[in-house]
TrEMBL record:
Keywords (A to Z) from UniProt: Coiled coil, Developmental protein, Differentiation, Flowering
Organism whose genome encodes this protein: Populus trichocarpa (Western balsam poplar)
Keyword Transmembrane: no
Biological process (GO), any one: cell differentiation
InterPro entries assigned: FLX/FLX-like (IPR040353)
Recorded family membership: Belongs to the FLX family.
Protein name per Swiss-Prot or TrEMBL: Uncharacterized protein
């Protein structure tokens, strides 16, 4: 019996050592499970962060694309405005030249037409002229010294009739009528 008792005791000791080993392995596995759970929770947070970053990247790409389109549109508009500005400058120069020429013609006509105000020179004519010009007034007013406001009024009327300039039409809308 004592041999059997020694054998049972050695078996119990072996089983106790095995139980302790298994308990240590169980504790190690439980700690690994806890680590895995925290890592899976971190994976969820990391996935959310990745998705947020991807959305920000997509918004950034959209903003860049919008800026590219806006820049292209603005460049086109700038080219169109530059062409219009060049055309308007040419038209303004043309109108200034035309105005200067008409003033020269008016001075020449006034100097050559009737040197002295009053009655005209051709005494045999049935038409008696009064004033300083032999040309009829295009507006129908008597020839008198015109103030600057009357000149502006006449110039604007001339431009209204003879000029389709975009610049003049815009300027006309923005200024008050001086009559």
């Amino acid at each position: 019996m004592s041999a059997e008792l020694v054998r049972v005791r050695t078996d119990v000791q072996k089983l106790t050592v095995q139980r302790q080993d298994m308990t240590a392995q169980l504790k190690e596995m439980n700690s690994e499970i806890v680590k895995a759970k925290t890592e899976t929770q971190q994976v969820g947070v990391i996935k959310e962060e990745i998705e947020t970053v991807q959305q920000e990247i997509q918004r950034g790409r959209s903003a860049i694309e919008y800026e590219k389109k806006t820049r292209a549109f603005n460049l086109e508009q700038e080219k169109v405005l530059e062409k219009n500005r060049i055309l308007l400058v040419r038209e303004i120069e043309k109108l200034r030249t035309e105005l200067a020429n008409s003033e020269k013609r008016a001075r020449a006509a006034a100097a050559a037409g009737n040197p002295s105000p009053g009655y005209g020179r051709n005494y045999g004519s049935a038409e008696v002229r009064y004033g300083g010009s032999s040309y009829p007034d295009p507006i129908g007013l008597q020839q008198v010294k015109k103030s600057s406001s009357v000149k502006r009024y006449m110039y604007r009327n001339y431009l209204d009739k003879h000029c389709s300039s975009f610049l003049y039409q815009r300027r006309k809308k923005g200024t008050r009528n001086l009559s």
